[in-house]
Amino acid sequence: MTEHRVLVFNHFAVPRGYPGGTRHVELFSRLPGWSYVVIAGRRNMVTGLPQRAEPGFHPVAVTPYRGNGLGRVVNWASYAVTATAAGLRQPRLDVVYASSPHLLAGVSGWIVAAVRRVPFVLEIRDLWPRVLVDMGRFAETSLTYRALERVERFLYRRAHRVVIMAPGVRAAVEGKGAAPEKIAFIPNAADPEDFVPSADRDELRRRYGFTRRTAIYAGAHGPANGLDLLLDAAKAVPDLDVVLVGSGVEKPRLQVAAHGIRNVRFLDPVPKTEIPDILHAADIGLHVLADVELFRVGVSPNKVFDYMAAGLPIVTNSPGTVGDLVMGAGAGYLTAPGNLAHGLSQMYQASSEELTKMGAAGRRWIRENQSRTAMSRALGQLLAPLVERAGGASC
User: Fold this and answer.
1) Which of 66, 214, 331, 357 has its CB surrounded by the most CB atoms within 10 Å?
2) Residue 1: its pLDDT value, please?
């Protein structure tokens, strides 16, 4: 049987073994009968270091930028140009799969799919550009937002399938023109088998310098993450150590803001392959978001599933989709967006047995309901009919 081939557009993807988003590498590598190539930006957005080509991973040149101004928009546009050119040069294709944010990656995917006459799948990881309005970056009446919204509607109508990662996104996607029967739900996920540590817990705690009960935040340090809320909460619970692992445009400012908070420590990003070790050394996993209404229904955060797979009890300040998941699985505590201190205090006061019980409940839930393996099967079931309908023809 001929192996099918999918081309994936994801500006911010990274290969295995590096800090950043490995969703598509992990999903497509588990898909039997398929080969894949992910086209990503040449610079790792977490570390700032250049990324090299390797099997299944094709980095393209993008312009540098700092902060969230015009330079970032130019960076998106540069990816759209270089990624489209790289996509058109790829050999035989059966499907093109493009992932937001940003939607210019979707434009690249649509162009390549149209030229190569293969099905086009659009994945919505954030409701972009709506999230930019809700966070105060654009006015709803601005020309920029209205132009981006037209792009959004255009892509929803042209896509053969639209993949969403949070159930609350469905209504918004339908409202912008996606036919209900085109929409598929394939959220983020994790496999407990991928979170086996390399050493015992005592050795790992010595390695990372964890000496007291420790809560860890492993993820992006950007405006959407609301990490000022975490600093305020840490200050209110001084006997609990809080460690932030990762990078982002807000990190330098947050490090200055945390000066004098003795129980807060920042660590550099670690490769995905090291995440099991640092999570196993910690006692609590932290999920924090800014208080934005859209985040209550429109997110599928990798870090929450990683914590669950690693058996870490969770504190989240995100009511709605994430909070319901954590509480429904018995995997931790939900607090109001601005009251993380309550959750940290509850976790500090909990017994070791209570923490272990919550962690085990989270691991059990992720294994039974939302493993990477199960999500890859769902992805295969989405793609197979598209290829069959196209007659298996490749170009």
Assistant:
1) 331
2) 56
Give which of 394, 390, 383 is closest to 24, Cα–Cα.
383
pLDDT at residue 300, rounded to an integer: 83
Q: Per residue, what are the HEC states of 161-217?
A: EEEECCHHHHHHHHHCCCCHHHEEECCCCCCHHHHCCCCCHHHHHHHHCCCCCEEEE
Smallest Cα–Cα separation from 155: which of 125, 122, 130? 122
Residue 119 has pLDDT above 90, yes or no: yes
Residue 308 has which token pair?
A: 């669950």
- Give the C-alpha separation, 270 to 293, whole Å: 30
Q: Give the pLDDT score at 68.
A: 66
CB atoms within 10 A of CB 85: 14
Strand partners, 244: 217, 266
Q: Within a 10 A sphere around the Cβ of 150, how many other Cβ atoms? A: 10
Burial category of 364 from C-beta neighbours within 10 Å (exposed 0-12, middle 13-18, buried 19 and up): middle
**Coil, strand or helix at 294:** helix
For β-strands 95-99 and 57-60, DSSP reports them as unpaired
Residue written as token pair 């959407």:
224
Query: Which of 268, 270, 288 has its CA nearest to residue 279?
Result: 270
Q: In the 8-state DSSP scheme, what is residue 338? A: T
Phi, psi of 222 (to 5 degrees): -120, 175
Degrees (nearest 5) of the Cα angle 53, 55, 57? 50
In sequence order, the β-bridge partners of residue 38 are: 8, 57
Q: Can you tell me the mean pLDDT for 146-167?
A: 92
Averaged pLDDT for residues 132-158: 84
- 273 Ramachandran zone, left/alpha/beta (phi>0; psi -120 to 50): alpha
Highest mean pLDDT among 12-26, 131-145, 370-384: 370-384
Instruction: Choose the weakest-confidence range: 19-33, 159-173, 357-371.
Output: 19-33
Report the C-alpha gap between 182 and 165 in whole angstroms: 14
Q: Is 275 exposed, middle or buried (0-12, 13-18, 19+ CB in 10 A)?
A: buried
Q: Are residues 315 and 336 in contact, defined by beta-carbon separation less than 8 angstroms?
A: no
Q: Which residue has the tokens 């070791």?
A: 352
